[in-house]
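#onboarding

Welcome to the new folks! Below is a worked example of what a typical request in this channel looks like: someone posts a single protein sequence, and someone else replies with the predicted structure as tokens. Don't worry about understanding the tokens yet, we'll cover that in week two.

Example request:
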Amino acid sequence: CKGDLKTSCDFEYSGHMIETMLLGMVAYRVGRKIQYDGAAGKVIGDAEAHALLSRKYRDGWTLHG
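Example response:
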């Protein structure tokens, strides 16, 4: 962790992998293919699928950050 060597499964690789897996789950839940804009972090042209990318927290339960 202190050197300049790159690991075989660094955060850049694993971040893309988990994003792909989670988008696959979104497509599975809505039952159709989706188009995703990775730079904007939005599903294009599918409000139902886009709604699955976040959630509304109950009063008193929020995330700050």
